[in-house]
Design goal:
Length: about 400
């Protein structure tokens, strides 16, 4: 199947970021078939317990804006899916060897109206965020029509966080931009269209889970609603706001291009000063990354790039999502109770663009990108996760899913 979708392989890094990972062919074993009856029994028992916890959680949250019991119920459900413990690391990119920042007095504790920036890989990440921060989730709304890509050129990087300098955490001049296409001689690009992010709307946890793997809502569609700027949502938010600048999920093998998600006023401040220091009442940025282990013959992949329901595209309609991602959930519970690995790396808040110690070299702020703040965050998340940045974006994911639909 990989050959059929070779044009969606990133030209600069050679990474295929959209196909759901599968175990290596060499790992297939007849032992898996022997375990099949036990797997089905485990799946049924786990599914009943998950449905019970989810039902009680839903009843407890009737009329509660923030939700009661997020930490308990979300962690319990994650444990039933095999995530008995989640490795959480606070990372300082300034420290040699990427050591945990024990000296920083700033705790990773986003408050009301702060922005959590993360890469997007799976619905399991949403459960972790719900358990850890009880945040406000937002869905991106994009324009229906495309515009010509930027005339600026940039080169792809093939190292983790190649667009940033570890000491400063800022993008270099030749860094891959958030809204610039790479044109590599002899390599076919998946698509050349660029469509703007018009804004966001708030969404509940279940809606976010159900839309895992799909492309953003389209402006004017039935479920899009009125798009709001990120700062407008943050001003009225009763909790931290989670934004995924990639806008879509990947298979956790590379980092997609970050879209223009931050307000124009924030971008202007960052472009002029090399930091986001607005003053009292500003939203602080908290950056984190998710890293999943690859699948094996005993454990299926925990990432979900391709949704498990691929009906006809309907411009972001709820009808399209169907029962997604229940089939993927079933594949996770139908395994022996072997621990699954999920690593969450939290960037030391002092090294975030809103941190007091963060000052980018003005010469390193890419003047050719629409959102230099998103570009800086992309470099930081890439360094944090050790995932290489690619020049593929959500528009490529849309074309990829359209091709998959046409072949079914």
């Amino acid at each position: 199947m990989a050959e059929k979708f070779s044009r969606f392989r990133d030209a600069g890094t050679g990474i295929q970021v959209f196909l759901n990972p599968v175990p290596p062919a060499s790992s297939a074993s007849s032992f898996s078939y022997v375990l099949l009856p036990f797997s089905l029994v485990f799946g049924a028992l786990r599914s009943l317990l998950i449905a019970l916890f989810a039902g009680i959680w839903a009843l407890a949250n009737l009329g509660a804006p923030l939700g009661r019991g997020n930490a308990f119920f979300a962690r319990a459900i994650l444990a039933l899916f095999g995530f008995y413990s989640i490795r959480e690391e606070k990372i300082s990119l300034r420290s040699r060897g990427r050591a945990t920042s024990a000296s920083s007095s700033i705790v990773f504790a986003p408050g009301k109206g702060d922005i959590i920036v993360a890469n997007s890989t799976s619905w399991t990440d949403l459960l972790y965020l719900a358990a850890r921060f009880a945040p406000v989730f937002v869905l991106p709304i994009v324009s229906a029509s495309s515009r010509p890509p930027s005339g600026a050129s940039s080169s792809a990087t093939s190292t983790p966080g190649g667009a940033t300098t570890p000491r400063r955490g800022t993008p270099k001049k030749n860094a891959m931009s958030a809204n610039t296409r790479i044109e590599t001689p002899g390599a076919e690009q998946a698509t050349t269209e660029i469509r703007d992010v018009k804004g966001f709307r708030r969404a509940g946890l279940w809606e976010m889970i159900r839309r895992t793997g799909y492309t953003p809502l389209v402006e004017g569609s039935k479920d899009a609603g009125t798009p709001l700027r990120l700062d407008q949502i943050a001003e009225s938010a009763e909790a931290p706001v989670v934004v995924f600048p990639e806008l879509v999920t990947s298979n956790n093998r590379g980092l997609l291009r970050f879209s223009t998600v931050f307000p124009a006023s924030w971008r202007l401040v960052y472009r002029r000063s090399g930091a986001l220091q607005i003053g009292a009442g500003q939203s602080n940025l908290y950056l984190l990354s998710f890293k999943h282990d690859p699948p094996s013959n005993l454990l299926s992949t925990t990432t979900l790039s391709v949704p498990t329901h691929l009906g006809p595209a309907s411009s972001g309609s709820a009808d399209e999502t169907g029962w997604n991602p229940l089939r993927h959930m079933w594949s996770l519970v139908c395994t022996l109770p072997v621990p699954r690995a999920l690593t969450v790396r939290l960037l030391d808040p002092s090294e975030s663009p809103t941190g007091r110690q963060y000052v980018a070299d003005p010469a390193s702020v890419n003047v050719d990108v629409l959102d230099p703040l998103a570009d800086a965050c992309a470099g930081l998340v890439a360094n944090l996760s050790r995932l290489r940045r690619t020049n593929l974006g959500w528009e490529d994911k849309e074309a990829f899913l359209a091709l998959m639909r046409s072949r079914r």
